[in-house]
Amino acid sequence: MLGHLFDLNQIEVFKGPQSSIFGSNAIGGLISLRSNKPSNKNIYRYSLTVGNDGKKGVNGLINFKIIQNLLLRISSSYNYSNGFRKNNYLNVDNSNKKDEIFVRAKLLFAPSKHFSLLGTVISSDLNNGYDVWAPDNNDQFLTYSDSEGEDSQNTNAGSLKLNYQFSNNFFLKVISSFSATKQVHSYDGDWANDEYWLIEHGFDPDIEGWSYSFYDSNRRKRNNFSQEIRLSNQQYTFGGYFNKFNEKDQAQGYLFGGLADEAESEYEFQKLAAYFQSFFKISEAVKLDFSLRLEDYFYEYRGRAIDNYYYTNIPTVNFIQTKEDRNPMLGFRIALSYKHRILKNLFLSYARGYKAGGANQEPFLDVINRPYGPEFIDNFEFGFKTVKEKYMISFNGFYGLRTDQQVSVSSQQDLGNPNSFYFYTANSGRGFLKGFETEIRYRFLPSFETISSIGFLDTYVEEFSYQTSNGISYGGDRESAMAPQLTCSFGFRYDLGDIFLASNTSYKSSYYFSDSHNNKSEAYSLTNITLGQSFQRFNITLWLRNVFNEKYNTRGFYFGLIPPNYPEQLWKSYGDPRHFGVTIDYNVN
Questions:
Q1: What is the pLDDT of residues 248-275, one digit of tens each?
Q2: Across 205-285, where does the E strand assignment appear?
Q3: Residues 6 or more apart whose Cβ sits within 8 Å of residue 322
Q4: Cis ω on the peptide bond leading into residue 564 (within 30° of 0)?
Q5: I want to staple 189 with a disulfide (CB 3.0 to 4.6 A). Which of 200, 214, 352, 542 is the partner?
Q6: Dihedral through CA 391, CA 12, CA 38, CA 232, nearest 10?
Q7: Structure pTM?
Q8: For the chain, what are the domain ranges?
């Protein structure tokens, strides 16, 4: 929700490792959302959206000059939908609701062309439900939980950006930012109720002497602060970056397989980085870009769990990163581009990206599994882009070698307990990814344009081992999880005066759900259609998503849930069904 799309100026997609520019969070690329800055114009815009599934949305924007050289821009959004789930037991249709509010304010002080100060404040309140899983694995969006889940988040954040130009060729930029977030994630761990288990599977709590009912709740507080200083001219950029992150968790429920009913933890993380960027013109047609970033980090984790019923002795976790564990990370990118007469732009690049390590929080993990190290990727890319009056063609081929690859492992420790999962991160050794992406835009008529794309991805993860209720299990030695081999799309836009019609169909091949089991999703395709008309001050848009009401999987877990024998099987959640509505945009100006 912090990246909502209302009042955006630009959406940038950076593909491949971008660690040399953006740090450890950009090992696989980055999507950058840039909102509009305050301007001298008085601007007032509003939009209203209604649709099926109880969809309601309201957006608003005001921009005006307070006094000379002091400008203010405020945008806000409210979005609500029921979440496409019907809870049969609770007899409600909004147990998986989306109820979100977002406000952003920007204040710009620019007394001269050499100096500006931009302050940004963001506040978001996400009061969402969580109820997506069912013990009969149905694809009719029916659930049976007797306790409503919650997936809420409240964030207040701000930044201050100073720009100063010392001379025609020398610039200073200082950026300070902070955020404070409160999160709640809770769910019904058995996904059902006593009546369901009795009727469908013969589990009688009066006979068994206990109720097959599990519930978990996790409350989290995060505080984040960063400071960046950047000096640059037209050719060189030098910068320094500092970040401090603190997270506190409090959990209640049937924790760690029933050994605890209360737990709390604290995680502290600091990183310090220095970076350099430059470009060199070898000739009028050839340019060399170079960027380098050195980053070091330090973290410590403290956690304890309490059993208030049987007073089980649960180990306290105090993990502090030692000097021997510290591993400064170096990222860089070298890119050579050539302006060709026909292909317009050819490029070749080599980049090293990285992702920081950390500590796993599960108290019963083996000591060797407690920390996990950073991951590195060496990535080679080549491609071209050509633009003509009627068409655009781009191609990008890549090969990435992953070292100490981080994998997410989900391991059930007790077959009779659906909440006895250990979720942790491990380093698997080596892996690779390779493939290509291409996009073609063609304008057949001034009013008709088509857009098509295709992507091929081949991945591999080395074999790794982990502990389960059945002993040692092995994963890997196959493709990475959540990495479909083939993706493609085709769309068009037809403009007829003030009326337009647009459609897009996307396809995604099957992929592994997890690194710790071998179950795969099914391939699927989705089609969206938009029809709109513009008037003098307002636009009306009719939209239809998932036109053919495709049933498709988004996540899959493999474990034992059904009593009394708890056979292991695949559990799937599904993406949204057909969704339609209308949006009205109104511009007062």
A1: 999 998 776 667 889 999 999 999 999 9
A2: 215-232, 236-255, 260-281
A3: none
A4: yes
A5: 214
A6: -110
A7: 0.90
A8: 388-589
